[in-house]
Amino acid sequence: MKRQVLSKDSADQLLNGLYGWYAVCVSSTLVNDFLYFFSMYNEPLILYRDKYSRAVCIKDLCTHRAASFQGGEIKSGEIICPYHGAKFSSDKTSKDPDRICCNQIVDSTYNTYARNIQLLQYPCVEKDGYIYIYYTGNPSTNVHDIPIHSTLEELEFTPISYGFRTSEYVFEEALLDFRCDWSRIVENHLDILHIFWMHGNSLPGNVVNRKTIKSFNHKITKTNNYIKCTYTHKDNENTEFITQVFVPPGRIYMYRGSPETARYIQVLDHIPLANNRARVMVRHYRKFIKNSTLCKLILFSLRQRSIFYSIFSEDSDSDSSGGGRRRTHKRKHRKSKKRTHKRKHTHKRKHRRNRTKKHRRRH
Ligand code: FES
Ligand SMILES: [Fe+2]
Description:
By secondary structure, the chain is α+β, with helices and mostly antiparallel strands.
């Protein structure tokens, strides 16, 4: 049952490449008896809660005859394939506690055969309101056969293991899908200057906008687990603008000051769904308003939400493989069409007026 942890040398998350821990969903989304379909690098996957309410991640593939579970059911943590009705569940008390086995297919004559039909899984862990999976591109019927190089804590991947005292904050979340490669979004979120130029109009206050755009000093720290960059003002080196921490493969923290004292933390998770399809999960932790009830006031959240969405829609205009440019072009095109139409229309009207005048003169 114990996870295999390799030597400390292999705990270098920056060398692990694209495989490893990803936050793929927030806990509140994954309610009991709900199949959460998503994908990683084109591989169709499902998250759900088993009969012990543990989050599990399976490949969306019934290993009986390779059907998808789309259109299938889940009852009391038991997943039912829509094709021939095979029922799968995990059983902590069985001799195969690490597997999700078929309990029944057709009738009891097939029970022995059924037990050998097992679903493919990825290691899945729930922490601090996030569902994390350890993605390797190679799922297994026994989840503990997948070697985990480092735990989330060793990698300082979870906000708490990085040093944030999350219990002192309230948070809100937003989730967005983009039609572009996920690395474009990671790069976009690490790019400070575009915030001034592109999002200046959407951000509240008058500190960050096109007029205040400027370059910063960078202080870069690289550890085995992450790359951290602190931006300070050039005219006052002691004043920090923001700190960004990239925890590969897909997490970014943004805050100011130290993790223990920051009043505001943004956690961005980037999920590589498929070719040119990326998902971003943003969580904002804040301490501005100590009264958590006040902080959760619907109007406050709506305001935050509308800011997120306008910022993200500005990004998707420019990031989705030139979509923005195309849209602008279309808009221009539409305008010029309108103008041409107007001109034609005015011309016709003039022509008609002249004809009527001539006609009147003749009579
Ligand atoms: S393919 Fe799922 S039960 Fe047959
Ligand atoms: Fe942006």
